[in-house]
Amino acid sequence: MTTFAAPATGTADLVARRAPGLSLEAPFYTGQEFFDLDIEAVFARSWLFVAAEAELPEPGDYVTVTLGPYSVILLRDDEEEVRAFHNVCRHRGARILDEQRGSVGNIVCGYHRWTYGVDGRLLHAESLPPDFDRSCFGLRAVHTRTVAGLVFICLAAQPPADFDEVAARIEPYIAPHGLRRAKVATQIDLVENGNWKLTMENNRECYHCGGHPELQCSLFPVYGYAEQDVPPVLRPAYDRYLQADAESRTTYESLGLPYAAIEELDTRATGFRIQREPLDGAGESFTEDGTAACGKLLSDFTTPRLGRLSLHMQPNAWFHFLSDHAITFSVIPLAPDRTLVRTTWLVHADAVEGVDYDLDALTRVWTATNDQDALLVARAQQGISSPAYLPGPYNPTEYQVEAFVNWYVTRLKAHLAR
């Protein structure tokens, strides 16, 4: 009987011997050691997308985010700035806020009632000596940046220094969509039964997009294809794309909207890709006929036919900005084989559900697509967990998967070399 068991190999050796152009070896996706390393080397050292500003509309509003052993409080302070703090009381370390979201006047630890302002300062602690210096015991801050209505944090003492440059390059693309004036239409959390890297890899290619019939009503199924690689079955769609792209560029230029692709996925610490391009059908939104899902546009656009502005950010997020709404996706590792995918739909703050938009119509395409992707990721996890699994080659259309994996392995190598 043939067996497939391989000799045990250390984590550092597996990282060092990663073969470009091939999927990762099984322990990267299945082992607790790699999961812990991913939190330490990637999620605790990179800039992470964690929320839209619209999730914190008023002073005192907060959201908590859990990343491995870390819990972080995001909240809007009295000056309406977004801040982030470790969710750890400075007295004896108790978890302060348990709920995923809410609103506070002050932040009060439920254990001994130490009380903090929304700026993190310790305001009150009972029965302490007169010479106790409260200024030394504020909540520990987490690096926070907002970019055109998106909130990013970094847990590292010294975050990657390239974020300012990345923010300056992507903000002109995103800002016209007015996310700071948006509100949350809905947010859906989905737990996928697979490793977080499988979730990200699945997002970085459209080789599998034939499994997304709802999405293919509006998304051209040729994403990632070079012209010479387009198969005959996709040639009609590719020709439609070329025509729509030419028409869209004229529109983008007339409105002063940047659209050219910038792709630096694995050449910097804060890897990203951004591009504005057309949608199929009516070309307005992610719906079953491509028409706008919300009658009130996100901004003062003169036409809803703006296609999609798509942004990919390493290691945990992707976004679609449309004329009528925006969708954010964040990925949070839960376990070696479990991953949270949080999807948030944003509409204009004055848009009224049932009048300007139907929530089911707004969310139908991506709810179905997320559910389909969850099944695909689970199947991938099951297969990789088999002793018969061996790394396989990436298709040319999966070049962004290779870029993601190369970025990831580069982060691990840098961390292990410390």
From TrEMBL:
The answer to whether keyword DNA-binding applies is no
Q: Which Gene3D superfamilies match?
A: Naphthalene 1,2-dioxygenase Alpha Subunit, Chain A, domain 1, Rieske [2Fe-2S] iron-sulphur domain
Among the GO molecular function terms of this UniProt record, one is:
dioxygenase activity
Q: Which UniProt keywords apply?
A: 2Fe-2S, Dioxygenase, Iron, Iron-sulfur, Metal-binding, Oxidoreductase
Highest taxon of source = Bacteria
- Reported cofactor(s): Fe cation
Where the record annotates domain Rieske, the positions are 48-153
Q: Which PROSITE patterns match?
A: RIESKE
Tell whether Metal-binding is among the UniProt keywords. Answer: yes
Q: Which PANTHER family match?
A: CHOLINE MONOOXYGENASE, CHLOROPLASTIC
Full protein name: Aromatic ring-hydroxylating dioxygenase subunit alpha
Q: What is the protein's species of origin? A: Streptomyces cylindrosporus
High-level lineage:
Bacteria, Bacillati, Actinomycetota, Actinomycetes, Kitasatosporales
